[in-house]
Write a structure and sequence with these properties.
The chain is α+β, with helices and mostly antiparallel strands. It contains 15 helices and 15 strands. Strands 3, 6, 7, 8 and 9 form a five-stranded antiparallel β-sheet that branches. The longest helix has 31 residues, at 418-448.
Length: 461
């Protein structure tokens, strides 16, 4: 009997071992490289893919294993083409360093150490939109000041009628579904908890100064009139957030808003340092030596801004040049300024010398390098000629490039002129050629490297 029990125990152990999915199991091969289960799961985690969902579906696993292999192959091919010393890759290497540094700083200085104590209000609303335009000869024309005031007055009167019905006992949920012009109407006007940074200042002020219950006066705000019912007031902290707000998605969204506020306060504090300067006007300068900002010994010039912009100009046909607006240049410069401030703060904390940090930077760098090489492959030999653009227009002008107008009460189809859509067509052809280029390269590489998946080791169905 004891021997039988012992034998049965051994059989159970053997079957358990056979059925076990170990991190060392090989899921795929290409060239002289293998992908183990552990490596695959770590790659999915780094990419922020939903791991549990993917591991239930074999097709998704095959697709992701193929993508993982392609990224690695791209790095191998980049070395063969001797492209790793380019100025763009040096820029990407700096970007990888900065992105990991900033995430580390955020996790340690903001996410872990920041507490908040913010008034939050659970509200229901009925939003009545006020149109600030009228249609004249099939065109939108802005209302005059007096016309707009009358429009607001008419909607306010309607809001007072609805408030009267609510005071007489009609249900808020039913009237919200009937009258509200807001997405929340399907929930009976219930938008959950809000904090100051989520709504217009005039609306927040009225809510903050009111007691729980129906606000008897409609609130005028941008684009319309609000009818508000306050369900509950709470002070939200990091500790009680998930206890007060049961909806996990809403709680997470609210936490992100409050942490973003803390981040902005942290950056504002860094900006107040004496050795920090930012000159917005210089963003419009044509002199590459003009200084836009200084952060200690770090100087950022107009030339640096133009170089940064050039690195992000993708998907542009060779014959189509676009001029970046000054407002976008200012936005890019401001972002570079914030990055410089945060980079200095993180380095002061010696975060860049941590071994785990260095590993994360290397992962990020390899990912960016692989993407850059595949962009290079996609762009290679792609030319869009004016003839191709014209041919595409002539082929589809009666179907794709049309619009409808109302002429004396009749709807008529009109063909859009070539000049208005030629850039759009050029971009469409360009992107298609890029996609075809890259798809062919991927197929060729997977064949050359003899990529294969070990189907028996995949999980799920």
């Amino acid at each position: 009997m004891k021997k039988l029990i012992a034998a049965s125990f051994v059989i159970i152990i053997i079957f358990a071992y056979i059925g076990c999915k170990c991190n060392s199991d090989i899921l795929a091969r290409y060239g002289d490289t293998t992908i183990t289960r552990g490596q695959f799961k770590q790659w999915l985690k780094d990419k922020q893919y939903p791991i549990e969902t993917i591991l239930k579906n074999k097709k998704q696993q095959r697709d992701k294993l193929e993508l993982m292999a392609i990224e690695s192959i791209a790095l191998k091919e980049m070395q063969k083409d001797n492209l790793q010393a380019s100025e763009k890759l040096k820029f990407l290497e700096d970007m990888a360093f900065e992105s990991v540094l900033l995430k580390t700083l955020y996790d340690k200085k903001i996410k872990k150490n920041t507490d908040f104590n913010e008034p939050a209000f659970h509200i229901k609303q009925i939003f009545l939109r006020v149109r600030d335009f009228k249609i004249v000869n099939n065109k939108r024309v802005n209302l005059t000041k007096s016309e707009l005031e009358k429009a607001y007055g008419d909607v306010e009167n309607k809001a007072r009628e609805i408030i009267g019905r609510l005071k007489n006992g009609e249900k808020f949920e039913e009237l919200a579904k009937q009258f509200s012009d807001d997405f929340s109407k399907k929930n009976g006007g219930d938008i959950g908890y809000i904090v100051k940074d989520m709504i217009q200042s005039s609306l927040y002020q009225a809510i903050n100064e009111s007691n729980i219950g129906l606000l008897e006066t409609p609130i005028r705000a941008e684009n319309g009139i609000y009818i508000i019912q306050i369900v509950e007031k709470q002070n939200i902290t990091k500790k009680n957030l998930n206890k007060i707000i049961k909806d996990e998605m809403q709680a997470k969204r609210l936490e992100q808003i409050l942490l973003r506020k803390a981040s902005n306060n942290y950056i504002d504090n860094l900006m107040s340092a004496q050795d920090v300067q930012f000159n917005e006007q210089k963003c419009k300068s044509k002199n590459p030596k003009d200084i836009i900002f200084k952060v200690g010994d770090t100087i950022f010039t107009v030339g640096d801004l133009e170089k940064k912009i050039s690195y992000f100009k993708h998907d542009q046909p060779v014959f189509h040049k676009s001029v970046m607006e000054d407002t976008k240049k200012v936005d890019i410069a401001k972002n570079a300024f914030k990055v410089a401030l945060l980079r200095r703060a993180a380095i002061k904390e010696n975060m860049h010398n941590d071994e785990e940090f260095k590993k994360e930077v290397e992962k990020r760098k390899q990912m960016l390098f692989a993407k850059e090489y595949m962009d290079y492959i996609a762009d290679r030999d792609v030319i869009v000629t004016p003839k191709e653009v014209r041919d595409e227009y002539e082929k589809y002008k009666d179907t794709r490039f049309t619009t409808y107008t109302n002429q004396k009460g009749k709807t008529e189809k009109q063909i859009i002129s070539f000049d208005k859509v030629k850039d759009q067509i050029a971009m469409m052809i360009y992107r298609k050629k890029r996609a075809d280029n890259l798809a062919k390269w991927k197929r060729d590489m997977l064949h050359i490297y003899k990529f294969s998946v070990n189907e028996a080791e995949l999980e799920g169905k």
